[in-house]
């Protein structure tokens, strides 16, 4: 938000306030701190820490990522990768030219092992065949970005239409055909996690190709993703970031005077929950989209222009959750990286909607095997959508009991499984939401970011982080 009229110029330069201390807010602050025209800069962060959805915690004898997990497309065109490299946070392998040149197409790698809910292992050859089909169709969806019109409104509808045509050409027996559809359904669940949505039917087809896929093999931070935002905070002048300072209302498009600045007028006054006010010339808003949706009617005074309010309402906001399970002994093979779960008798071509309390866990895509911490063995599960939100209503004990039973059921008949199937510690966390385009809102993100006469705002999310 900025002034456009003849508002008094501050003798010491323009005053700028950044609302939100996530990576978007810290990035804006870094850029402005290097500019002589903005000597007065503050970042207001509502919580006691910076980083937003980048959150690393010490648990299970090591560091786990409660929020953002990977750098996707770690190569020269990725600003997150460049920052991490500049701060010396990545290892030799991650920085190698070989790693940066790997073309993944933006797709998740194949699982190390795939279990059907019946307890049988699914052939990795069949999984690879279905992955090839699914990701080829995902690639096709990106081709409609600049099309005059799309054959169907959503990504999900397009995928199901194309899969339905492929199914007619399958010549295998009925059991194999059902298994193929179940595997494809697991890839739909995985894509829901990637896109941060309950269903791919809610993701608009036209703008889906806006996501830029960069080369590079996805990598992690050995000492925690939060090391990146910690370095960003440390690079700012002392006391730039003010913690535990939630903002109540941004009063803008006005002419405000403050006793601390006699003779000066400011177009913006930022009011905090504790009553403090910050008079400034410019405000950069980087709060999460979910917060904007919840507080849209009270956060801005006067209200935002209609096109910006409409954009905030139309851009979808989904939920991802991570579940961490600790085991005394691993039941998976030493080289296992990703365990896929395939739910029998499911199909992306059927709109079955069982009661959440009976089947929420069937949205679980499986588990990523985290690097071993000394003698501790941890799996990280991912789940998205309404099932994820339902899980948030359960206690840790209820989630633990359910997932322990699931793991025992799917792996018990497997002769190569070894070790304990009982997890001793569980943490499920609801702070890992991601932003996705839903409801055909192709132009809404552009409308939100486009500066208007008196207002410019930015919705914080983690498109490029996890």
Automatic annotation (TrEMBL):
A Pfam family that the UniProt record links to this protein: Amino_oxidase
Signal peptide, first to last residue: none
Protein's recorded name: Polyamine oxidase
Domain Amine oxidase: 23-415
Cofactor(s) recorded in Swiss-Prot or TrEMBL: FAD
Keywords from the UniProt entry: Cytoplasm, FAD, Flavoprotein, Oxidoreductase
An individual GO BP term: spermidine catabolic process
Biological source species: Rhinopithecus bieti
Principal localisation: cytoplasm
Assigned GO CC terms: cytoplasm
Gene Ontology molecular function, alphabetical: polyamine oxidase activity
Subcellular compartments: Cytoplasm
Classification via SUPFAM superfamilies: FAD-linked reductases, C-terminal domain, FAD/NAD(P)-binding domain
Family assignment from sequence similarity: Belongs to the flavin monoamine oxidase family.
């Amino acid at each position: 938000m900025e002034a456009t009229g003849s508002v008094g110029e501050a003798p010491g330069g323009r005053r700028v306030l950044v609302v939100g201390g996530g990576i978007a807010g810290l990035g804006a602050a870094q850029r402005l701190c290097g500019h002589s025209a903005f000597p007065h800069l503050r970042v207001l962060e509502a919580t006691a820490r910076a980083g937003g959805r980048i959150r690393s915690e010490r648990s299970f004898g090591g560091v786990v990522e409660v929020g953002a997990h990977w750098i996707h497309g770690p190569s020269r065109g990725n600003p997150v990768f460049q920052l991490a490299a500049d701060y010396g946070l990545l290892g030799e392998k991650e920085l190698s030219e070989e790693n940066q040149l790997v073309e993944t197409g933006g797709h998740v790698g194949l699982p190390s092992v795939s279990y059907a809910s019946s307890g049988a292992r699914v052939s990795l050859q069949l999984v690879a065949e279905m992955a090839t089909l699914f990701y080829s169709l995902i690639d096709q969806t990106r081709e409609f970005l600049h099309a005059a019109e799309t054959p169907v409104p959503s990504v999900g509808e397009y995928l199901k239409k194309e899969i339905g045509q492929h199914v007619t050409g399958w010549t295998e027996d009925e059991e194999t055909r059902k298994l193929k559809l179940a595997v494809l359904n697991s890839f739909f669940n995985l894509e829901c996690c990637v896109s941060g949505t309950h269903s791919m039917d809610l993701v608009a087809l036209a703008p889906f190709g806006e996501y830029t896929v960069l080369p590079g093999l996805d990598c992690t931070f050995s000492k925690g993703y939060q090391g990146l935002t910690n370095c960003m905070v440390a690079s700012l002048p002392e006391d730039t970031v003010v913690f535990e300072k939630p903002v109540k209302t941004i009063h803008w498009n006005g002419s405000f005077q403050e006793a601390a600045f006699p003779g000066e007028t400011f177009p913006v006054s930022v009011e905090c929950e504790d009553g403090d006010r910050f008079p400034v010339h410019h405000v950069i808003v980087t709060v999460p989209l979910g917060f904007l949706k919840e507080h849209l009617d009270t956060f801005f005074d006067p209200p935002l222009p209609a096109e910006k309010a409409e954009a905030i309402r139309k851009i979808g906001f989904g939920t991802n959750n991570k579940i961490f399970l600790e085991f005394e002994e691993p039941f998976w093979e030493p080289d296992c990286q990703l365990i896929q779960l395939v739910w029998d008798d499911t199909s992306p071509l059927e709109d079955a909607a069982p009661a959440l309390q009976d089947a929420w866990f069937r949205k679980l895509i499986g588990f990523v095997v985290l690097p071993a911490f000394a003698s501790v063995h941890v799996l990280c599960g991912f789940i998205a959508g309404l099932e994820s939100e339902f899980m948030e209503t359960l206690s840790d004990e209820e989630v633990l009991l359910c997932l322990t039973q699931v793991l025992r059921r799917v792996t018990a008949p497997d002769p190569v499984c070894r070790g304990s199937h009982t997890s001793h510690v569980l943490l499920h966390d609801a702070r890992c939401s991601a932003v996705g385009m839903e409801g055909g809102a192709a132009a809404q993100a552009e409308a939100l970011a486009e500066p208007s006469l008196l207002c410019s705002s930015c919705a914080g999310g983690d498109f490029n982080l996890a």
